[in-house]
Please model this.
Amino acid sequence: MAIQTTVDIDKLDTLADLAIGETGIVKFYDENAMTTLILNLGLLPDTAVQMVRRSPFGGAFYIRTAKQQVAIRVEEARGIFILKQ
Amino acid sequence: MTKERLTKIAIVGNPNSGKTTLFNLLTGLNQKTSNFPGVTVEIKSSKLKLDSKHIEIFDLPGTYSLYPNSSEERIVIETLCNPASAYHPDIILFVADLNHIERHLLLATQIADLGIPMVFIANMVDTIPEDLVQYYESKIQNLLEVQVVSTSTRDASQLAKLKKVIIEQLDLQGHRKAKDKYFYRTTVAFQPATNYLKDVIGITNDYMANLVINHSSWLSYINEEVRVNLATKLPPDSNFIRGQINETLARYATFEPIVHKAILNDFEQHETFTQKLDKVITHKIWGPLIFLIIIVTVFQSIFSWAEVPMGIIEAIFADLGGWLVGNLPNSILTRLLVEGILPGIGGVLVFVPQIAILFFLLGLLEEFGYMSRVVYMFDQVMRGFGMNGRSMVSLISSGACAIPAIMSTRTIANKRERLITILVSPLISCSARLPIYAILVGFVVPPLTVLGFLNAQGLVFLGLYVLGVVSALGAALVFKVFIRNDEPTYLMLELPTYKKPLLKNVFYNMLAKVRTFVVEAGKVIFIISILLWFGASFGPSDRDAALAQQAIEVNNNATMSDEDKANLINTQQLETSYIGILGKKIEPVIEPLGYDWKIGIALITSFAAREVFVGTMATLYSVGQGGDEELADRTLRQKMQGALRLGSNEKLYGPATALSLLVFYVFAMQCMSTLAVTKRETQSWKWPVIQFVYMTALAYISAFAVFNIMS
Model:
């Protein structure tokens, strides 16, 4: 499992671009101090992630992978690049 | 008896792995909380005797990996990567939830690389098919080369099995073969730095050295000299973040074949219970509404359920005081005990029921999985105020007491967000303000019913609480401008599957919070109540003769009952004491707020703890304490009602003075214990001083404004 991807980065969306109910496959990260936490929470390369809902006052998303639910800020989601399914 | 070395065992695991449940199961009530030296994080520990061997078990904070984000998670590195630490374990019990094994194995491989002997506790097996449990058991055993124990820590009958495992590990001590398998190795470029650490701080393990290199900027046991030297040994282009990501991905690759089934990307066809519930609980409209209902219910329960136990505690202390007076020689020590120390302790313990109930209910919500939803829902709102969704939990706790609230900010990683939460938490009205509100609210409005069903006094009460919340948010906005932010901030939070709360965990958590409150508040209030007693009992040397003269006059007054006489003598004593003199001295300062010297005295005595206000007023108005509390309150209110402003016929406790005083108590930092905790948590004098000054200024200016507008 490595970060290299055969997908053209320009064709990727970020997690924040997913509409409610849409799913994407994690491909690439904007690396920063929080990236390891993103990985720790199971948002690994090639995992599917679904946009479930927005938080009541905005600013954050409720997303889920096959195994769990995660709360993530919009900025944090912008640093995760996905391939829309 | 020769003192045998304790074998130290640390429980390590991800958040929500059942770690604390295991700790509670193994230790029962035999737990102690101590502060980790140098940093303000608590570690729960317990000393046990297993099969004639003495062990000490620690419950380390939950973390996802050895690259931590909050100060709480950092403790895991501080202990595991420092062989000289008093908390460095000989054996690690690694707890993992088999339902989420794909995530827990990451930390497990990191721990394995540290070379500390470990047992893998495969937890929550009751929710997984038997054959899958067996599959994981053998695979993990092969992967990590450690003993794997399948269990459910929620099932108390597993205790014997777990103890047996620990005993087996203790027997193995000293008979283990050296470790030769590493899941991850750093590049040779880091070898000079690794060798340097091995030389100077006695680390023998490569991966441990790698972690120290990554975390040297904050590890408390790495001194400045080592830090500087270490930096010179690093490759010039070292990118720690990149390294951490590479390491994480490399580790996943080592166990991915085992958990392949678990990370299959198909979402389950049917919605799980958690997802169904979250549709409502985190809903755009229902979510905040449900939160509001829960919070109102929680606080309503606190006030109604705590009433009886609080009455009992007060009665016990009153009886005890009476008994001591009757059975101890009439000496100054007896008076110090009965009038100073005993009420001081009683004043702390009386709030235990409210704090216990709040933390029991919050613990239930936390165990169920609700609190992380609150963090998620309100993160954006709190960010607007320079805080974090996690601040919500602290602010709610402040409704009972700011001390545990401030301590709970340890989960907030960002310094500014944490600091702002600490600084504004004491503005939320805590339990200790309640008795003051109760006495004074009647002077502001009569017990009218407005709009057919609302109680006017209840509305003022609610108004004071709202004022506390609004001012806390307002103060946060101001601090947001002045406190620099130079650290990343994040939400990124697992929303755990909803679980039936384990009452044992909730109960132990509540006990820990109550213990913290009693210790933290108790030690400060104890000292101050002794000082205040001296101040209130003694005065300048020429006063004794005058007091004696007055006492004779009072005693000769045939129209007074003995009780009234005693109360009046008490009043005269307090008036002429050092504190009484000080109260009169500060009268010019507080006069613009509508207060007289009596209130001045009460402001001084309640400086250690707000609730003392009521007792002082009772003494000043010659109301006997002890016995029926409601009667005493009523009598005090009547006497205050009759009090006139000096030199006029105007009632002192008009709505203006009463409201001014209420507003003063909403804002004022009248709690030394909170200041002491702020000092410890921020590790500086600067912040408690700022907290005290800004809150007192806010109190003074607001009280001044209220009094002048209303009169």
User: Anything to note?
Assistant: DSSP finds 30 helices and ten strands in chain B.
